[in-house]
């Protein structure tokens, strides 16, 4: 690929790549309207246009492209979940990431460096054993490792021998990795736009009108459109948007804080997280250390920064790497996580026959981007909910057929 | 080495105190009071770093830490701002991200290949030829070349302080406006703290031309004001919570009112090679000369876009630096330039800078005027292209940023009611206007506090229109016209990002990385907005800047984390355990005895189990959560919180408590002893008590019942004395409580004294034996423990406790339960009141009961030999699929088998199939009752 750069460099002037077309005027009607121009919505648009031949698609984005949780997450990709249903689903996500740059012709910088989660207590070791057993059964690369292996996988880690947070072992997930979040969204947007999908930035849905069990019209700040089918994928705003359609979702919003240091030469190759310290670290390809893990302990639909979580994350990071104390923080930020009671997402059918939900992504949405897009597109294209996402139906809450991922998600990423 | 300017230049340096240090291995000499950068400048070293992408030589531009140019490694510390860090003796300073130091970096070859690195180039390349190419080849290459400083993995822990500070008024910025505000608010009776990141108060007066007279005035009348210098207010958080960092100390400041007098940040001018060392801002050159007596060059050109530039030119002239020309741009031709003419300086009106020449230092500027183009030889270019207000804190607080097209300046509006602006951040520039705006802000804060103060008017600022910023030209055909020096971004990079479709400011930032470097857009935000506005036909005001977020400046992780990184808790009996040879282990935040004595843990635990079963033992249970629930509604309150009935619970009775969440899942358990009609003493599990306490408080904030909730966990120690001889052992201690079976039956509580210690005793336990749980104020605990030992009671540890409870079939919440566990599937229907109209989780319990059980928690047993192969977290299988897992397992010394608890299907029948560690399934028979004493005869004895 550097040949392309060579060719570029030797040519005169900048020939624009035009990845994201300018926002066009809204048409009166589309076969499919996707509410939410984040990773999930754009991935769905890409699958609809590139795999199902459905090109009359409008993606409506309230702000700038992929500016919500796609822009704010800390880019962990993994499949070491607790339930068979989740492991199967996220395993497909990982494999779609493996071929994503190639599929999109756009470097999303998927870097499968492996993820190590640390245990500092017997209880955590128990939960790791369970996740490893479940993972092995499903054929995923997940194993419990001892303290010595932890030391080898992460050479500079403070093991706290004899201390309160002594590292007893870890959960090693060789499939785990990271990718450039913006590039994932842009890659899908670019590929979808090339097939005729319209991307409307700064377009806010203000009302959703339905007749009987069908959505008929979507009202926006730029005009009203008719829609054959609708996908809702609005991240932290899922609860609010669903209410416009008259659907109540079992979602509570919590701000999730993250931060990043100034760039440094590489010293941490793997993705490291600690379940007990509610902290995880990854060093980006720019050399910055991204630190995350803490949700504010109260419900709030705001992305304001909070100080206590920053302190908490700094303490966690320094517990793992005490020598980082004179490294400087560059920036902190927050996203709104839409948490469900069982820490699993809501996908598929809604009470309205042509309205499809992609919600409840809490702190685990980025890693599901390709697979959620793939199967949401399939819902719309075939009118049927594919088996792989059927367990994540909204109706599971009425049946209490919950998919418990507490302890395997959220803080421990 | 260049000679320093004579006094009075150099207000910060101590000329007779020399300090030696090194840069890239070369020894240098500086003076006390120098920063690292000023000492290097005095030694003639202008190249402090190499740029991020092209490895171009870079030197200080702002002398105020506004750009990444001055980042150096000092010893083990990466990314130190050399223009802010005071020099100390023996410092080893190194340039970062270079091959052979700042002056000889072979990476500079990259500067010639810029055309092959268009904006966003890494998205279009580096992902072939195979799928793993990025991971294995390209990413490591990029990671090695990216990154600035080096982490010293051998570095020990740091030492940091944390202090809390509350005040009526926090003034951020101790320039003339901030000082006037502080003076006015303090005079009205407010408690005032003023902070400034410079080492002294006075702000711009300390380096401005003719500032010294006003400086003395500004610093007067501050009695009673707390002044923190060298202290940076690094962010604004909700309710005026403001972290202030002074060295390695974090002040957590809570202020009723905040006055932001943060001044302005000089903006660079964009032209070809505008990043060359020797090109500096007007305030930077004034800081160099007045603070450090640096002779900044041998021939200077000054770009005077505002009155500051004129003053800087006169300063240079006065200091004896030849000023070859003063350039007044067309937008500013009405600037009063008479003083320049009087000083005999050459003034070029209507002039623009086209570009600069030089390799490691500026050698000449290309200048155009109406009369043509000329090249002026110089090694110093002073750029006064206006400034942006210090908008960061107001924007953190939700203020709105606007742009005034007439003055070409950012403006701030919509401030929160408890924040006020003063001085140049508010658009005041003339000295009397600055001071008046400070006085007005101080008075506004005082009035908001309910103090008497009159609000002075701010006079019209006749100079305000001179303070403006300047446009960006079209991309230079030869490039190297930098918008963002941190990230090596040129005008064309921003233009091309827009052309590639990234036409929103946030997308431009993310695609080009503009503003993402260490200076976080301080010097690039305005010009980026300008270019984007031009390219998209919008106004600068519509574009604005990307979301401003804390921290304002870099902050060390150590400063944030503070002195105490992990909060370890020890019970009052900790010393006794250690003296008794206990092996201590962590349990949440606590240290607890696991077993006592030397030898294999399993054997010691088995001995302790036998001791409890046959004789008597004691366990330190001080870590248990303890809550005092008091008030007329105490019983009714617990009725809502827990599943059993408490409103009708007799005084003296102890009742089990089970807490559910709204899903009907079990989240905690404990006991509640009604000590009086309006007083319950409630226990919660060690790890959950903080959450239980906050949940209770949260619910009562909604229910508003007459109840007071207190977490008294740390106030009481607790010792559980258990075993067939427990009563006899306690009766050996003098006390006033009748411990007889009839007088003090199972599940009752009594208070009184025992061995002279005030105690609360409950007849409860976790072992299945006759048990008395003694709670005593923590200061009495060691004495009570000693008395018990004297009576022949020996301690046992957590390992034995876990076996004892499992033998009796008691569950541990969190180990034998998960987020979905209902009381029904745990076989705890007995703990659910059927009569109560409401308790937390009841609607879900009813609904889930109607749906039916999805699984059950069951007891299984296996021969002892299965130990190791069958362990906790082994899967329970049915028809080749996992239906549950083993939650607890232990070898029972009492029943001589491996016993355990496991989640299994709804109707597991007689046995379950457990998948062992080696992957085979074994059949384990189920046990329908507690493994030990199913009739409960022993605990009720």
TrEMBL record, chain A:
Which Pfam families does the entry mention?
A: DAO
PANTHER family, per database record: FAD-DEPENDENT OXIDOREDUCTASE DOMAIN-CONTAINING PROTEIN 1 (PTHR13847:SF287), SARCOSINE DEHYDROGENASE-RELATED (PTHR13847)
Regions that span the bilayer: none
Domain (Rhodanese) spans 32-76
This entry's Gene Ontology molecular function terms read: oxidoreductase activity
Xref: InterPro entries: FAD-dep_OxRdtase, FAD/NAD-bd_sf, Rhodanese-like_dom
Residue ranges the record marks as coiled coil: none
Name the record gives this protein: Sarcosine oxidase subunit beta
| One annotated Gene Ontology cellular component of this protein | cytoplasm
Source organism of the structure:
Seohaeicola zhoushanensis
- Which key words tag this protein in UniProt? Oxidoreductase
Superkingdom, taxonomy of origin: Bacteria
TrEMBL record, chain B:
| A Pfam entry, by short name | Fer2_4
Q: Which residues form the FAD/NAD(P)-binding domain?
A: 168-398
Using the record's annotation, list all stretches that form the GCVT N-terminal domain: 574-836
Transmembrane residue ranges:
none
User: Which SUPFAM superfamilies does its entry note?
Assistant: Aminomethyltransferase beta-barrel domain, FAD/NAD(P)-binding domain, Folate-binding domain
Instruction: Write the record's keywords in alphabetical order, separated by commas.
Output: Oxidoreductase
Boundaries of each Aminomethyltransferase C-terminal domain copy?
855-933
| Domain called SoxA A3: residue spans | 478-562
For molecular function, the Gene Ontology terms on record are: oxidoreductase activity
Q: Which family does it belong to?
A: Belongs to the GcvT family.
Protein name as catalogued: Aminomethyltransferase
- Which lineage do the record's taxonomy fields give for this organism? Bacteria, Pseudomonadati, Pseudomonadota, Alphaproteobacteria, Rhodobacterales
Q: Which gene encodes it?
A: soxA-2
